[in-house]
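FIELD: query
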Amino acid sequence: MKVNDYRKLYKPVYHMKPDMIELLQVPPLQFIVQEGRGRLNTLGRPAEDYWAVWKTVNQLKRMSKERNNYQFKLMPHEIVWHEKVSEEEWTFTEMMQVPDSIDFDMYDEANRAVEKRYRKQIMPKTKLIMIDQGFCIQKLHIGHYRESYKTVEELHKYAEDHGYKVSKDRREIYLNPPDCYPTPDRWETIVRLQVKAL
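FIELD: result
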């Protein structure tokens, strides 16, 4: 059975070379998302992360393989950071991209399976939505997640110098999980900002 890897299909969206800023038009993509608000852990990620998105996508992956003979690889964890509520507290949207073949009926069934399996836990609500990020600038941040603000500042400076206005909150795409790469010098994060011409 062929395994479909959307990192390769959308290579400009999910792959970057270091030390450069790229401009790209991101196509509309489908995501499972959950909203969150809370403190950050020592990594700079949400401290209380029940990660209902990941559980739902795993159910969809199993269903797609068993019923449609279609197997896809899990995509990177993504967070859109919204408002800094306090020094260590943020509002954010966590998400993972899923294939267009996932429809609302499959999502509803997968969501019910997650709720049944984890009914004794407090699980965030998820949604299946299409997101059109549009025209963006991005740069690969290598290092600790808590230092990604430096890359954000670089992108804002680039936008200002090249006649663009940042129009949305920043998106961070975590390309490799820290539990597999214990030292921050190997953590890779695409930092992306939506922009429009002034």
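FIELD: remark
The first helix runs from residue 6 to 9.
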